[in-house]
What does this fold into?
Amino acid sequence: MKKGYDIVIIGGGIIGCSIAFELSKRGVKDILLVEKRFLTAGATGRCGAGIRQQWGAELNASIALESTHILEHLEEYTGYDHSIELHQGGYLLVAYTDKEWAQFQKNLEVQHKLGIESVGLTPRECLDIVPYLNLDGVVGGTFCQKDGHANPFHSTQAYAKGAMRQGVDIETFCEVTGFRTSNRAITAVETTKGIVETKMVINCANTRAPELAAMVGDDIPVYSERHQALVTEPVEPLIDCMVMSFSRSYYVQQTPHGSFVMGIGPKEEPSHNFHSSWQFLEQNCAIMCEALPILRKLNVVRQWAGQYDMSPDRHPVIDEADTCKNFYSVCGFSGHGFMVAPRIAILMANYLTGQKDSIDITKSAKKDLRPGISLSNLLLYNCI
Amino acid sequence: MSKQETLLCRCEDITREQIRACIAEGYQTIDEIKRITRAGMGPCQGRTCRMLIAQEISACLNIPIEEVLMPAFRPPVKPLSMGILADAYEEKEAEQ
It folds into this structure.
Protein backbone atom coordinates (compact mmCIF):
# COMPACT_ATOMS: atom_id res chain seq x y z
CA MET A 1 0.00 0.00 0.00
CA LYS A 2 1.41 3.36 -1.07
CA LYS A 3 0.75 6.74 0.55
CA GLY A 4 -1.57 7.87 -2.21
CA TYR A 5 -3.60 6.63 -5.17
CA ASP A 6 -5.69 8.22 -7.91
CA ILE A 7 -8.68 6.11 -6.89
CA VAL A 8 -9.57 4.21 -3.72
CA ILE A 9 -12.28 1.55 -4.08
CA ILE A 10 -13.91 0.42 -0.84
CA GLY A 11 -15.22 -3.13 -0.71
CA GLY A 12 -13.76 -6.47 -1.79
CA GLY A 13 -16.92 -8.01 -3.17
CA ILE A 14 -17.83 -8.63 -6.80
CA ILE A 15 -18.80 -4.97 -7.37
CA GLY A 16 -15.56 -3.46 -6.05
CA CYS A 17 -13.33 -6.07 -7.71
CA SER A 18 -15.07 -5.88 -11.09
CA ILE A 19 -14.91 -2.06 -11.12
CA ALA A 20 -11.19 -2.23 -10.22
CA PHE A 21 -10.67 -4.64 -13.12
CA GLU A 22 -12.61 -2.60 -15.69
CA LEU A 23 -10.94 0.68 -14.69
CA SER A 24 -7.44 -0.81 -14.82
CA LYS A 25 -8.30 -2.39 -18.18
CA ARG A 26 -8.99 1.15 -19.43
CA GLY A 27 -5.53 2.29 -18.33
CA VAL A 28 -6.48 3.74 -14.94
CA LYS A 29 -3.98 1.76 -12.93
CA ASP A 30 -3.21 3.80 -9.83
CA ILE A 31 -5.97 2.17 -7.81
CA LEU A 32 -6.17 0.82 -4.28
CA LEU A 33 -8.97 -1.53 -3.27
CA VAL A 34 -9.48 -1.79 0.49
CA GLU A 35 -11.49 -4.52 2.16
CA LYS A 36 -12.39 -4.71 5.84
CA ARG A 37 -11.90 -8.49 6.01
CA PHE A 38 -11.04 -10.69 3.02
CA LEU A 39 -12.39 -10.77 -0.54
CA THR A 40 -16.00 -12.11 -0.70
CA ALA A 41 -16.39 -11.89 3.10
CA GLY A 42 -19.64 -9.94 2.73
CA ALA A 43 -22.71 -10.30 0.56
CA THR A 44 -20.93 -11.74 -2.51
CA GLY A 45 -19.63 -14.73 -0.57
CA ARG A 46 -23.06 -15.35 0.94
CA CYS A 47 -25.27 -14.92 -2.11
CA GLY A 48 -27.42 -17.47 -3.89
CA ALA A 49 -25.10 -17.31 -6.93
CA GLY A 50 -27.87 -17.21 -9.53
CA ILE A 51 -27.53 -15.61 -12.97
CA ARG A 52 -30.91 -14.62 -14.40
CA GLN A 53 -31.94 -12.77 -17.54
CA GLN A 54 -35.66 -13.27 -17.01
CA TRP A 55 -36.47 -9.79 -15.76
CA GLY A 56 -39.52 -7.64 -16.26
CA ALA A 57 -37.86 -4.26 -16.84
CA GLU A 58 -36.07 -3.86 -20.16
CA LEU A 59 -32.92 -2.18 -18.89
CA ASN A 60 -32.66 -4.69 -16.07
CA ALA A 61 -32.95 -7.61 -18.48
CA SER A 62 -30.40 -6.13 -20.86
CA ILE A 63 -27.83 -5.52 -18.08
CA ALA A 64 -28.30 -9.10 -16.88
CA LEU A 65 -28.05 -10.40 -20.46
CA GLU A 66 -24.81 -8.53 -21.16
CA SER A 67 -23.42 -9.61 -17.78
CA THR A 68 -24.14 -13.22 -18.65
CA HIS A 69 -22.25 -12.83 -21.93
CA ILE A 70 -19.17 -11.76 -19.94
CA LEU A 71 -19.55 -14.49 -17.33
CA GLU A 72 -19.67 -17.04 -20.17
CA HIS A 73 -15.96 -16.38 -20.77
CA LEU A 74 -14.87 -14.63 -17.58
CA GLU A 75 -11.83 -16.89 -17.17
CA GLU A 76 -10.40 -15.79 -20.54
CA TYR A 77 -11.58 -12.22 -20.06
CA THR A 78 -9.69 -11.83 -16.78
CA GLY A 79 -6.95 -14.44 -17.29
CA TYR A 80 -8.11 -16.59 -14.36
CA ASP A 81 -6.52 -20.00 -13.94
CA HIS A 82 -9.49 -21.71 -12.25
CA SER A 83 -13.04 -22.20 -13.44
CA ILE A 84 -15.77 -19.84 -12.22
CA GLU A 85 -18.04 -22.91 -12.44
CA LEU A 86 -20.67 -21.22 -14.58
CA HIS A 87 -23.48 -23.64 -15.25
CA GLN A 88 -26.22 -22.57 -17.63
CA GLY A 89 -28.85 -25.10 -16.69
CA GLY A 90 -31.56 -22.47 -16.93
CA TYR A 91 -34.02 -20.89 -14.51
CA LEU A 92 -37.52 -22.25 -14.17
CA LEU A 93 -39.71 -19.49 -12.77
CA VAL A 94 -42.89 -21.04 -11.41
CA ALA A 95 -46.15 -19.07 -11.33
CA TYR A 96 -48.59 -20.05 -8.58
CA THR A 97 -51.20 -17.33 -9.12
CA ASP A 98 -53.03 -16.00 -12.18
CA LYS A 99 -51.71 -12.52 -11.46
CA GLU A 100 -48.15 -13.83 -11.47
CA TRP A 101 -48.79 -15.74 -14.68
CA ALA A 102 -50.14 -12.59 -16.35
CA GLN A 103 -47.02 -10.68 -15.26
CA PHE A 104 -44.82 -13.45 -16.68
CA GLN A 105 -46.48 -12.97 -20.10
CA LYS A 106 -45.54 -9.29 -20.05
CA ASN A 107 -42.00 -10.15 -18.92
CA LEU A 108 -41.64 -12.60 -21.81
CA GLU A 109 -42.49 -9.83 -24.30
CA VAL A 110 -39.75 -7.61 -22.84
CA GLN A 111 -37.26 -10.48 -22.86
CA HIS A 112 -38.04 -11.52 -26.43
CA LYS A 113 -37.55 -7.95 -27.62
CA LEU A 114 -33.98 -8.16 -26.32
CA GLY A 115 -33.36 -11.59 -27.82
CA ILE A 116 -33.48 -13.44 -24.50
CA GLU A 117 -34.41 -17.03 -25.24
CA SER A 118 -37.11 -17.50 -22.60
CA VAL A 119 -40.25 -19.56 -23.13
CA GLY A 120 -43.63 -19.84 -21.44
CA LEU A 121 -44.57 -23.30 -20.19
CA THR A 122 -47.75 -25.08 -19.15
CA PRO A 123 -47.60 -26.94 -15.83
CA ARG A 124 -47.06 -30.19 -17.73
CA GLU A 125 -44.22 -28.68 -19.72
CA CYS A 126 -42.65 -27.55 -16.41
CA LEU A 127 -42.52 -31.24 -15.51
CA ASP A 128 -40.46 -31.97 -18.63
CA ILE A 129 -37.82 -29.65 -17.24
CA VAL A 130 -38.09 -30.54 -13.54
CA PRO A 131 -39.79 -33.95 -13.21
CA TYR A 132 -39.80 -33.65 -9.40
CA LEU A 133 -41.85 -30.45 -9.28
CA ASN A 134 -45.06 -30.67 -7.25
CA LEU A 135 -47.71 -29.31 -9.64
CA ASP A 136 -50.24 -28.46 -6.89
CA GLY A 137 -51.15 -24.83 -7.42
CA VAL A 138 -48.82 -24.35 -10.40
CA VAL A 139 -50.42 -22.13 -13.07
CA GLY A 140 -47.48 -22.11 -15.43
CA GLY A 141 -43.83 -21.26 -15.71
CA THR A 142 -41.17 -19.61 -17.80
CA PHE A 143 -37.78 -21.03 -18.62
CA CYS A 144 -34.56 -19.61 -20.02
CA GLN A 145 -31.76 -22.06 -20.73
CA LYS A 146 -29.05 -19.38 -20.66
CA ASP A 147 -29.77 -18.54 -17.02
CA GLY A 148 -27.88 -20.43 -14.38
CA HIS A 149 -25.36 -19.92 -11.65
CA ALA A 150 -21.64 -19.37 -11.09
CA ASN A 151 -19.26 -19.62 -8.17
CA PRO A 152 -19.18 -16.17 -6.50
CA PHE A 153 -15.81 -16.79 -4.81
CA HIS A 154 -14.02 -17.70 -8.02
CA SER A 155 -15.81 -15.01 -10.04
CA THR A 156 -14.61 -12.36 -7.57
CA GLN A 157 -11.09 -13.80 -7.47
CA ALA A 158 -11.03 -13.77 -11.28
CA TYR A 159 -11.71 -10.02 -11.29
CA ALA A 160 -9.40 -9.35 -8.32
CA LYS A 161 -6.45 -11.26 -9.75
CA GLY A 162 -6.96 -9.70 -13.18
CA ALA A 163 -7.04 -6.25 -11.57
CA MET A 164 -3.87 -6.96 -9.59
CA ARG A 165 -2.08 -8.09 -12.73
CA GLN A 166 -3.11 -4.80 -14.32
CA GLY A 167 -1.51 -2.87 -11.44
CA VAL A 168 -4.27 -2.51 -8.85
CA ASP A 169 -3.22 -2.86 -5.19
CA ILE A 170 -5.57 -4.78 -2.92
CA GLU A 171 -5.32 -4.33 0.84
CA THR A 172 -7.36 -6.78 2.91
CA PHE A 173 -8.10 -6.54 6.65
CA CYS A 174 -8.03 -2.79 6.19
CA GLU A 175 -11.11 -0.93 7.45
CA VAL A 176 -12.08 2.58 6.39
CA THR A 177 -12.58 4.78 9.45
CA GLY A 178 -13.08 8.22 7.89
CA PHE A 179 -12.51 10.61 5.00
CA ARG A 180 -10.69 13.89 4.58
CA THR A 181 -12.09 16.54 2.30
CA SER A 182 -11.08 19.96 1.09
CA ASN A 183 -13.36 22.40 -0.76
CA ARG A 184 -16.10 19.75 -0.81
CA ALA A 185 -13.89 17.28 -2.63
CA ILE A 186 -12.30 14.08 -1.40
CA THR A 187 -8.59 14.29 -0.52
CA ALA A 188 -7.83 11.24 1.60
CA VAL A 189 -9.22 8.06 3.12
CA GLU A 190 -8.48 7.16 6.74
CA THR A 191 -8.03 3.44 7.35
CA THR A 192 -6.92 1.17 10.16
CA LYS A 193 -3.65 0.81 8.25
CA GLY A 194 -3.04 4.52 7.83
CA ILE A 195 -4.12 7.50 5.76
CA VAL A 196 -4.26 7.17 1.97
CA GLU A 197 -4.36 10.31 -0.16
CA THR A 198 -6.67 10.05 -3.14
CA LYS A 199 -8.53 12.02 -5.79
CA MET A 200 -11.56 9.74 -5.95
CA VAL A 201 -13.43 7.23 -3.83
CA ILE A 202 -15.73 4.52 -5.17
CA ASN A 203 -17.79 3.22 -2.29
CA CYS A 204 -18.80 -0.39 -3.04
CA ALA A 205 -19.31 -1.43 0.58
CA ASN A 206 -22.79 -2.88 0.01
CA THR A 207 -24.86 -2.59 3.19
CA ARG A 208 -22.14 -0.51 4.83
CA ALA A 209 -22.06 1.94 1.91
CA PRO A 210 -24.68 4.33 3.42
CA GLU A 211 -22.63 4.65 6.64
CA LEU A 212 -19.52 5.52 4.67
CA ALA A 213 -21.42 7.97 2.46
CA ALA A 214 -22.84 9.60 5.59
CA MET A 215 -19.27 10.38 6.70
CA VAL A 216 -19.06 12.86 3.81
CA GLY A 217 -22.61 14.07 4.36
CA ASP A 218 -24.29 12.05 1.63
CA ASP A 219 -27.64 10.43 2.31
CA ILE A 220 -28.31 7.14 0.52
CA PRO A 221 -31.66 5.49 1.29
CA VAL A 222 -30.29 1.95 1.28
CA TYR A 223 -30.78 -0.38 4.21
CA SER A 224 -29.59 -3.83 5.14
CA GLU A 225 -31.95 -6.81 5.23
CA ARG A 226 -30.97 -10.25 6.45
CA HIS A 227 -31.55 -13.19 4.13
CA GLN A 228 -30.63 -16.75 4.91
CA ALA A 229 -29.66 -19.76 2.86
CA LEU A 230 -28.66 -23.35 3.41
CA VAL A 231 -26.79 -26.08 1.60
CA THR A 232 -27.24 -29.86 1.58
CA GLU A 233 -24.89 -32.78 1.19
CA PRO A 234 -23.91 -33.51 -2.41
CA VAL A 235 -26.06 -36.06 -4.24
CA GLU A 236 -26.21 -37.35 -7.81
CA PRO A 237 -27.50 -34.84 -10.41
CA LEU A 238 -31.27 -34.46 -9.95
CA ILE A 239 -32.20 -30.99 -11.16
CA ASP A 240 -30.24 -29.13 -13.82
CA CYS A 241 -31.83 -25.71 -13.45
CA MET A 242 -32.58 -23.13 -10.79
CA VAL A 243 -36.22 -23.38 -9.63
CA MET A 244 -37.66 -20.17 -8.30
CA SER A 245 -40.97 -18.67 -7.25
CA PHE A 246 -41.74 -15.06 -6.41
CA SER A 247 -45.13 -15.61 -4.78
CA ARG A 248 -43.90 -18.48 -2.60
CA SER A 249 -40.57 -16.72 -2.28
CA TYR A 250 -38.13 -19.57 -2.77
CA TYR A 251 -35.14 -20.47 -4.93
CA VAL A 252 -33.22 -23.71 -5.18
CA GLN A 253 -30.39 -24.95 -7.38
CA GLN A 254 -28.10 -27.94 -7.49
CA THR A 255 -24.48 -26.85 -7.77
CA PRO A 256 -22.04 -28.63 -10.10
CA HIS A 257 -20.57 -30.12 -6.91
CA GLY A 258 -23.87 -31.91 -6.25
CA SER A 259 -25.10 -30.00 -3.21
CA PHE A 260 -28.38 -28.07 -3.25
CA VAL A 261 -28.25 -24.38 -2.31
CA MET A 262 -31.58 -22.79 -1.43
CA GLY A 263 -33.23 -19.97 0.41
CA ILE A 264 -36.53 -18.26 1.10
CA GLY A 265 -37.10 -14.55 1.37
CA PRO A 266 -39.17 -13.48 4.34
CA LYS A 267 -39.09 -9.75 4.78
CA GLU A 268 -37.25 -8.69 7.91
CA GLU A 269 -36.63 -5.48 9.78
CA PRO A 270 -33.46 -3.64 8.67
CA SER A 271 -30.43 -4.97 10.56
CA HIS A 272 -26.83 -6.06 10.18
CA ASN A 273 -27.68 -9.40 11.72
CA PHE A 274 -25.34 -12.08 10.37
CA HIS A 275 -26.67 -14.86 12.60
CA SER A 276 -28.59 -17.91 11.40
CA SER A 277 -31.99 -18.80 12.85
CA TRP A 278 -33.68 -22.16 13.45
CA GLN A 279 -36.94 -20.59 12.31
CA PHE A 280 -35.47 -20.17 8.85
CA LEU A 281 -34.23 -23.75 8.81
CA GLU A 282 -37.71 -25.16 9.47
CA GLN A 283 -39.70 -22.74 7.34
CA ASN A 284 -37.32 -23.06 4.40
CA CYS A 285 -37.48 -26.85 4.51
CA ALA A 286 -41.29 -26.80 4.75
CA ILE A 287 -41.66 -24.50 1.71
CA MET A 288 -39.01 -26.30 -0.35
CA CYS A 289 -40.23 -29.82 0.43
CA GLU A 290 -43.72 -28.85 -0.66
CA ALA A 291 -42.47 -27.50 -3.99
CA LEU A 292 -40.00 -30.33 -4.56
CA PRO A 293 -40.87 -33.30 -2.31
CA ILE A 294 -37.76 -35.20 -3.43
CA LEU A 295 -35.72 -32.80 -1.31
CA ARG A 296 -37.11 -34.40 1.89
CA LYS A 297 -34.41 -37.04 1.75
CA LEU A 298 -31.51 -34.59 1.56
CA ASN A 299 -29.44 -33.69 4.60
CA VAL A 300 -28.77 -30.05 5.45
CA VAL A 301 -25.09 -29.56 6.31
CA ARG A 302 -24.84 -25.81 6.77
CA GLN A 303 -26.92 -22.66 6.95
CA TRP A 304 -25.75 -19.06 6.89
CA ALA A 305 -27.00 -15.51 6.73
CA GLY A 306 -26.09 -12.58 4.52
CA GLN A 307 -27.35 -9.12 3.76
CA TYR A 308 -29.26 -7.62 0.85
CA ASP A 309 -28.55 -3.91 0.36
CA MET A 310 -32.13 -2.87 -0.23
CA SER A 311 -32.98 0.35 -2.03
CA PRO A 312 -36.54 1.70 -1.88
CA ASP A 313 -37.42 0.61 -5.42
CA ARG A 314 -35.09 -2.43 -5.46
CA HIS A 315 -32.88 -0.79 -8.09
CA PRO A 316 -29.17 -0.03 -7.74
CA VAL A 317 -27.96 3.39 -6.71
CA ILE A 318 -25.01 4.89 -8.56
CA ASP A 319 -24.51 8.25 -7.00
CA GLU A 320 -21.91 11.00 -6.72
CA ALA A 321 -22.27 12.78 -3.38
CA ASP A 322 -23.38 16.38 -3.89
CA THR A 323 -21.68 17.20 -0.60
CA CYS A 324 -18.34 15.78 -1.73
CA LYS A 325 -16.98 15.80 -5.26
CA ASN A 326 -15.51 12.57 -6.60
CA PHE A 327 -17.12 10.44 -3.90
CA TYR A 328 -19.14 7.80 -5.73
CA SER A 329 -21.36 5.16 -4.17
CA VAL A 330 -22.38 2.02 -6.05
CA CYS A 331 -24.81 0.05 -3.92
CA GLY A 332 -28.45 -0.83 -3.35
CA PHE A 333 -28.45 -3.91 -5.58
CA SER A 334 -31.22 -5.39 -3.43
CA GLY A 335 -30.01 -8.96 -3.73
CA HIS A 336 -29.07 -8.97 -7.44
CA GLY A 337 -25.56 -7.51 -7.37
CA PHE A 338 -23.71 -10.68 -8.32
CA MET A 339 -25.57 -11.31 -11.58
CA VAL A 340 -25.32 -7.72 -12.86
CA ALA A 341 -21.81 -6.85 -11.64
CA PRO A 342 -19.95 -7.44 -14.95
CA ARG A 343 -22.07 -4.92 -16.88
CA ILE A 344 -22.37 -2.43 -13.99
CA ALA A 345 -18.56 -2.40 -13.72
CA ILE A 346 -18.23 -1.60 -17.44
CA LEU A 347 -20.87 1.10 -17.13
CA MET A 348 -19.06 2.65 -14.16
CA ALA A 349 -15.60 2.43 -15.76
CA ASN A 350 -16.86 3.93 -19.03
CA TYR A 351 -18.52 6.75 -17.14
CA LEU A 352 -15.47 7.57 -15.01
CA THR A 353 -13.06 7.47 -17.95
CA GLY A 354 -15.36 9.57 -20.15
CA GLN A 355 -16.02 6.81 -22.66
CA LYS A 356 -19.30 6.25 -24.47
CA ASP A 357 -21.65 3.60 -23.20
CA SER A 358 -24.85 2.29 -24.73
CA ILE A 359 -26.54 3.01 -21.40
CA ASP A 360 -26.66 6.70 -20.60
CA ILE A 361 -26.72 6.85 -16.82
CA THR A 362 -27.06 10.61 -16.62
CA LYS A 363 -30.31 10.28 -18.53
CA SER A 364 -31.84 8.17 -15.79
CA ALA A 365 -31.36 10.89 -13.21
CA LYS A 366 -34.72 11.33 -11.56
CA LYS A 367 -34.70 12.97 -8.21
CA ASP A 368 -38.30 12.63 -7.25
CA LEU A 369 -39.12 9.02 -7.99
CA ARG A 370 -40.82 8.47 -4.69
CA PRO A 371 -42.31 10.88 -2.21
CA GLY A 372 -40.16 11.37 0.85
CA ILE A 373 -36.94 10.32 -0.77
CA SER A 374 -34.55 12.83 -2.14
CA LEU A 375 -31.33 11.66 -3.71
CA SER A 376 -28.38 13.81 -4.49
CA ASN A 377 -26.91 14.01 -7.99
CA LEU A 378 -28.64 10.85 -8.91
CA LEU A 379 -27.03 9.22 -11.89
CA LEU A 380 -28.64 5.86 -12.16
CA TYR A 381 -31.65 5.06 -10.16
CA ASN A 382 -34.61 3.84 -12.08
CA CYS A 383 -32.39 1.82 -14.32
CA ILE A 384 -32.91 -1.77 -13.41
CA MET B 1 2.26 -42.67 1.63
CA SER B 2 3.81 -39.61 0.07
CA LYS B 3 3.25 -36.13 1.44
CA GLN B 4 1.16 -35.28 -1.61
CA GLU B 5 -1.43 -37.82 -0.57
CA THR B 6 -1.93 -36.48 2.94
CA LEU B 7 -5.58 -35.49 3.09
CA LEU B 8 -6.39 -32.57 5.35
CA CYS B 9 -10.09 -32.31 4.47
CA ARG B 10 -11.48 -35.82 4.28
CA CYS B 11 -15.00 -34.77 3.30
CA GLU B 12 -13.93 -32.84 0.20
CA ASP B 13 -10.67 -34.72 -0.57
CA ILE B 14 -8.37 -31.73 -0.18
CA THR B 15 -4.69 -32.56 0.25
CA ARG B 16 -2.05 -30.78 2.30
CA GLU B 17 -0.34 -29.85 -0.97
CA GLN B 18 -3.47 -28.09 -2.22
CA ILE B 19 -3.79 -26.17 1.04
CA ARG B 20 -0.13 -25.14 0.87
CA ALA B 21 -0.53 -24.07 -2.76
CA CYS B 22 -3.42 -21.85 -1.68
CA ILE B 23 -1.36 -20.22 1.06
CA ALA B 24 1.51 -19.72 -1.41
CA GLU B 25 -0.99 -18.04 -3.76
CA GLY B 26 -1.74 -15.46 -1.07
CA TYR B 27 -4.81 -16.77 0.76
CA GLN B 28 -4.19 -16.09 4.43
CA THR B 29 -7.25 -17.31 6.33
CA ILE B 30 -9.16 -20.56 6.79
CA ASP B 31 -12.24 -18.73 5.46
CA GLU B 32 -10.55 -17.87 2.17
CA ILE B 33 -9.15 -21.37 1.73
CA LYS B 34 -12.60 -22.79 2.49
CA ARG B 35 -14.21 -20.64 -0.19
CA ILE B 36 -11.63 -21.46 -2.82
CA THR B 37 -11.11 -25.20 -2.22
CA ARG B 38 -14.31 -26.26 -0.36
CA ALA B 39 -12.12 -27.55 2.51
CA GLY B 40 -14.41 -27.59 5.55
CA MET B 41 -17.65 -27.43 3.56
CA GLY B 42 -18.44 -31.16 3.74
CA PRO B 43 -20.69 -33.10 6.11
CA CYS B 44 -18.33 -32.66 9.11
CA GLN B 45 -18.17 -28.88 8.53
CA GLY B 46 -14.45 -28.65 9.19
CA ARG B 47 -14.34 -30.47 12.50
CA THR B 48 -11.35 -32.44 11.26
CA CYS B 49 -9.61 -30.08 8.87
CA ARG B 50 -10.17 -26.71 10.50
CA MET B 51 -7.33 -27.07 13.00
CA LEU B 52 -5.12 -28.89 10.51
CA ILE B 53 -5.47 -25.98 8.06
CA ALA B 54 -4.83 -23.56 10.94
CA GLN B 55 -1.57 -25.43 11.60
CA GLU B 56 -0.55 -25.12 7.95
CA ILE B 57 -1.30 -21.37 7.93
CA SER B 58 0.58 -20.93 11.20
CA ALA B 59 3.62 -22.80 9.88
CA CYS B 60 3.68 -21.29 6.37
CA LEU B 61 3.07 -17.68 7.42
CA ASN B 62 5.06 -18.00 10.64
CA ILE B 63 2.31 -16.70 12.92
CA PRO B 64 1.20 -18.16 16.28
CA ILE B 65 -1.67 -20.59 15.81
CA GLU B 66 -3.90 -18.63 18.20
CA GLU B 67 -3.69 -15.69 15.79
CA VAL B 68 -5.09 -17.71 12.87
CA LEU B 69 -8.62 -16.38 12.29
CA MET B 70 -11.29 -19.02 12.93
CA PRO B 71 -14.27 -19.20 10.55
CA ALA B 72 -17.78 -19.05 12.00
CA PHE B 73 -19.23 -22.29 13.36
CA ARG B 74 -22.52 -22.65 11.53
CA PRO B 75 -25.61 -24.72 12.35
CA PRO B 76 -26.76 -27.45 12.23
CA VAL B 77 -24.28 -29.28 14.46
CA LYS B 78 -24.77 -32.45 12.43
CA PRO B 79 -26.52 -33.07 9.11
CA LEU B 80 -30.33 -33.18 9.42
CA SER B 81 -32.78 -34.26 6.77
CA MET B 82 -34.96 -31.59 5.19
CA GLY B 83 -38.01 -33.82 5.75
CA ILE B 84 -37.50 -33.84 9.54
CA LEU B 85 -37.04 -30.07 9.56
CA ALA B 86 -40.07 -29.51 7.32
CA ASP B 87 -42.27 -31.65 9.58
CA ALA B 88 -41.07 -29.72 12.64
CA TYR B 89 -42.39 -26.55 11.02
CA GLU B 90 -45.80 -28.10 10.35
CA GLU B 91 -46.11 -29.32 13.93
CA LYS B 92 -45.39 -25.87 15.24
CA GLU B 93 -48.05 -24.42 12.93
CA ALA B 94 -50.62 -26.99 14.09
CA GLU B 95 -50.02 -26.10 17.75
CA GLN B 96 -50.84 -22.50 17.03
User: Anything to note?
Assistant: Chain B touches chain A through 26 residues (CB under 8 Å). Chain B has one domain: 3-95. The radius of gyration of chain B is 17 Å.
